[in-house]
Amino acid sequence: MSAQYRHWQLERAPDGVTWLRFDKAGSSTNTFSAQALGEFEQILERLGRERPKGLIIASAKSAGFIAGADIEEFTQIESGAEARRQVERGWTLFNRLADVSYPTLALIRGHCMGGGLEMSLACRYRIAVDEPGTRMALPEVMLGIVPAWGGMLRLPRTIGPAAALDLMLTGKSVNARKAKSLGLVDECVPVRVMENAAQMLVTSGREPRRLPLLQKLLNGPAKRIVADKARKQVAKKARREHYPAPYAIIDIWERFGGDALAVPADDPASLEAIFRSPTARNLIRVFFLQERLKGFGKESDFSAKRVHVIGAGVMGGDIAAWCALRGMTVTLQDQTAERIGPAIGRAGKLFARRLRSDKRAERFAMDRLIADPQGHGVRHADVIIEAIFEDLDVKRGLFADLEARARPDAILATNTSSLRIEDIAEGLQRPERLVGIHFFNPVAMLPPVEVVRGEGTDETVLRQALAFVRAIDKLPLPVESAPGFLVNAVLGPYMLEAMRCVDEGTPPEVVDRALVDFGMPMGPIELADTVGLDIAMAAGKALTGGAAATPPRRLAEQVSAGHLGRKSGRGFYTWDDGKAQKEPVSEVPPGLAERIIEPLLAATRRCVEAGVVADADLADAGVIFGTGFAPFTGGPMHYGAARGDAPPQPETDAP
Ligand code: NAI
Fold first, then answer.
1. Active-site residue flag, 376
2. Contact, 600 vs 591, CB < 8 A?
3. Residue 410 maps to which CATH number?
4. Per-residue pLDDT tens for 339-390?
5. Is 560 a catalytic residue?
6. DSSP annotation of 632
């Protein structure tokens, strides 16, 4: 019965219920390409004639339900009219699904994103399978677009407008249990009963869920209250000229009943306006850059299970905790057991935060993290990460000892920020074994990890290190051994320029405001205070080879007075309860942000030209994910190219 469809399996069960399983050809993940949607349309037509007792839509993939629209196809949209056609197709089709005379049900197991959730919302019933992989979201806003295939119409009707806007404006996902408590799904069931549960519910004749009266009012005559509140929330995070989509979502829901096609082309919430702004294209570009970084992890089948971390300080402690959270068995070594204790305490808090709803998983993560003051774990580890003080001789000595005790196939990695990999490797019998795996602080928050190739680092080791980084769910960024690698080499000159502005008399608040207005997540002065002024000072010295440039005056004064920023309660700002106390800013001088961004752009370009990263796209990826550089610009190199900078000129003798 199903042979005629490339992407769908259609099967009528003996009880008269029809099962439709999405199985996108040539792909491990289900996405709605134009072709897959076209077939779905034909299937609806056919079922209209056959009138099944019920229709259950499920996935034939082990990888999940439906990941959403095919983003590759978005990149081919070239005009506002095409964007409109693309929207119209899903909107009309899912309206048709919502209108069929027989009962319909989406059986959601695994990820159910964007268009996948919009299709589910058009069904009469939804069941979510209670598994960790089941996640539901409308993440369109993260790509600078809007959930126009019925999401803006049906999500508020299903779970109430405030909860719906919260999901649509943040793009965040919810698990099966949360979906049940929100009313997003009718049932949340374990995997073993899912098919039975689906069959029973679809033929139950049960009335679909109705919104409580208050929610109905808020989704009707009282929309204004919810819309105004949502606009205020969005304005705190994003400016309309940088990110038009979240504002458009609120407008389309409030003024156009969730129908993006009803918005006139000259309205700022129109599909044409969203398409005209470069933001969506740039955010889609950032999405693909992220996919490219993930791809580096696939070039080796290296699979690590045991990790040994040496140094339980700020970095080592958090690296160990992160690896344990991601399923590795981790031994954590330091000079004494007392030094390991605080790291284990921090790990407990991380696990509690991240595994909130699963006490068992929290306990298992804790069991996987083992204090190991004697370093017994070295002999068994697949990966050994050194994160001790930044001291060349001590690191060299440590690695010589590690090499003698570690398995010959274990990866030896250093988290150094400023020492040369080849210098640390000098004491090794096989220096080609050493690779840099450079995490950023705070480890749990920052996705990229630079994987540093020393002059002699073996290619296989490098690929294994990339695979390891991906396996702990970070974004591996391959870089060459050069001062500051990529991210710090780019951040340094930017923060330096910001501090020079402060030395010249511009208040820190004004500097920070200028850059936040530009689109940075945090101003550079607040960032320096957050990182720690001693660390900022040391990083500056390392980048300039410890010589030449004098450090910014205010920075040097603060450090010698022991004012180290957030951690000591005082730096450029006074810190109270983890918050910088700032004077209100009335005006930002024109050109200030551009002046401070310029050294960042120049440094990124230098890194590309010197071959620290393989190409301009990778530089953009590293700088966006590593520094938060305004994603709507598409990255510093892309930003430079868009304003007409000449393409970078690679040096002939790249390192
Ligand atoms: P930290 O001072 O917080 O921790 C270092 C720890 O190493 C201390 O607990 C110390 O007792 C231990 N240690 C020192 N020598 C040891 C030895 N021989 N055996 C066992 N343990 C030993 O230092 P932090 O900030 O965690 O830095 C560690 C490394 O990470 C450095 O190489 C640094 O450049 C790098 N890094 C630091 C970042 C940061 O923001 N703090 C960011 C990225 C890298």
1. no
2. no
3. 3.40.50.720
4. 999 999 999 999 999 988 778 999 999 999 999 999 999 999 999 999 999 9
5. no
6. G
